[in-house]
């Protein structure tokens, strides 16, 4: 059974940093495209970043140069390093496993989801 458990969220001031982690189990982690998504109150879930099994990454424009997605296949763990955080980054952050390889940042391409971890950035 696929299980994804996020951690590392919290409250920070604008300009601060957080590192999210997602512990994966129940499947062959290294062979799947993984992604981070976020959803703010009243808004649709949006793709933040993806990382393919070969390490190729993709980011939404809003986080390019500030966020870094990475994976440790030996630990079955996905990470999101978030620097220079802004109030508009405030959201629930979810990790997800793709149905296929990495094709884009659409939530519909991802079939397994964690429960989320809250990130709040104050000005």
Describe the structure.
- With about 120 residues, the protein is mainly β.
- The protein contains no helices and eleven strands.
- The mean pLDDT is about 95.
- Helix content is about 0%, strand content about 50%.
- The strands form two sheets. Strands 2, 4, 5, 6, 9, 10 and 11 form a seven-stranded mixed sheet that branches. The protein has a four-stranded antiparallel sheet with strand order 1-3-8-7, with no helix packed on it.
- The chain starts with a strand and ends with a strand.
Overall geometry comes to globular
* Number of E-state strands: 11
Count of helix runs:
0
Oligomeric state of the chains present here? single chain
Q: Segments where pLDDT lies below 50 for 5+ residues?
A: none
Percent in strands:
over 45%
Order of helices and strands: EEEEEEEEEEE
Mean pLDDT over all positions: 97
Give me the Rg, rounded.
Answer: 13 Å
Range of helix content: under 10%
Instruction: Report the major sheet.
Output: 7 strands, mixed
List keywords for this structure.
123 residues; mainly beta; 7-stranded mixed sheet; 4-stranded antiparallel sheet; 11 strands; 50% strand; globular
Give the arrangement of secondary structure elements.
Elements: E1 3-7, E2 10-13, E3 18-25, E4 34-39, E5 46-51, E6 57-59, E7 67-72, E8 77-82, E9 91-98, E10 110-113, E11 117-122
Parallel strand pairs: 2-11
Antiparallel strand pairs: 1-3, 3-8, 4-5, 4-9, 5-6, 7-8, 9-10, 9-11
């Amino acid at each position: 059974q696929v299980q994804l458990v996020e951690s590392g969220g919290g409250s920070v001031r604008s300009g601060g940093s957080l590192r999210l982690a997602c512990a994966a189990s129940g499947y062959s982690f290294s062979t799947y495209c993984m992604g981070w998504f976020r959803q703010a109150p009243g808004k649709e879930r949006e793709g933040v970043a993806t990382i393919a099994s070969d390490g190729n990454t993709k980011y939404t424009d809003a986080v390019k140069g500030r966020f870094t997605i990475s994976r440790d296949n030996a630990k079955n763990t996905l990470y999101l390093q978030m620097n220079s955080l802004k109030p508009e980054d405030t959201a629930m952050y979810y990790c997800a496993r793709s149905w296929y390889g990495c094709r884009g940042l659409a939530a519909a391409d991802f079939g397994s989801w964690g429960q989320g971890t809250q990130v709040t950035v104050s000005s």
